[in-house]
Amino acid sequence: MPELPEVESTRRFLEPALTGRRIVAAEVRRPRMVRRQEHPDDFSARVTGRTIRRLRRHGKFLMADLSGDLVWVTHLGMSGRVSLARKGDPESPHTNVIVRVGGGVEMRLVDPRTFGFVVAYTPEELAASPLGRLGPDAYADLPRVAELARRLAGRTAPIKALLLDQNVVAGLGNIYADEALHRAGIAPERPAGSLTKEELGRLRRAIRVTLDAGLRWGGTSLDDLAYLLPDGRAGEFASRLRVYGKEGQPCPVCGTPIQRVVLRQRSTHWCPQCQR
Partners of 106 in the beta sheet? Predict the structure, then answer.
């Protein structure tokens, strides 16, 4: 699933092409893509004719603030990606949503498994939706150590599981949680409430460094190329991963073979020597 660096890289690419433009048409080809809309036909009806005032992101969600106080939300799901094209350009297979703006520019949502979605919310609908319960953004609004300690106090769940809980911190997924925990030297199965303030400080710094690196290299495209930048290029961070997907390979810090375990039904990669 695309995580924060992938969605933010997509946002940065789309921003100059879409901001300030008027939506002239929206086509939804798979009803499942608008399953979050109370009335499926509302998505096209609501966004058409609106101007995209700002393109932003919260966690793994791409958000466009539209004229008339509406928010267009796009989630890429497990296999979704966004492409930017012009009207008449050849389409990729599984192009399920097309939003056309002035000048013939199209934002196309390509999603083979249809786990992604688009939805147009009023402010009240957004606040009442699961997005209204998202935790602070892991990149733009990562809590300071004291607040992290408060949020995790008494929690017995593994720290890896809570990093993936979007209501605790929004934007981290399997890849970047594994990488941040390795940088911080913290074992993924540690009870979250057992982390000291010194360890939380290391974790906080590691999250920022890891996300900065992911953004610098355009995100992580794995072998399946499910995620690509909107111009079709692959994100280049995969070759710089320390532990994710490296089972049996030597830890880049100490040389101990990286282990893979399943933690709360999620594949987890870590170094048993460096992470305590």
Answer: 85, 100
Annotated active-site residue 15? The verdict is no
Task: Using DSSP, state whether 95 is helix, strand or coil.
Answer: strand
pLDDT for 85 beyond 80 = yes
Under CATH, to which class is 4-133 assigned? alpha beta
Measured at the alpha carbon of residue 257, what is the angle toward residues 254 and 260, in degrees to the nearest 5? 125
- Point out the catalytic residue in the list 22, 32, 155, 266: 266
Q: Is 147 a catalytic residue?
A: no
Inter-residue contact 160 to 186 (CB < 8 Å): no
Domains of the chain: which residue ranges? 4-133, 145-270
- Label residue 1 by pLDDT band (50, 70, 90): confident
- The CA distances from residue 217 to 3, 204, 233, 239, 241, in Å, are 14, 21, 11, 10, 11
Distance CA 211, CA 237 (A): 10
Considering the candidates 36, 60, 160, 202, report the single residue annotated as catalytic. 60
- The verdict on whether 160 is a catalytic residue reads no
pTM over 0.90: yes
Q: Which CATH class is domain 145-270?
A: mainly alpha
- pLDDT tens-digit series, residues 87-140: 999 999 999 999 999 999 999 999 999 999 999 999 999 999 999 999 999 999
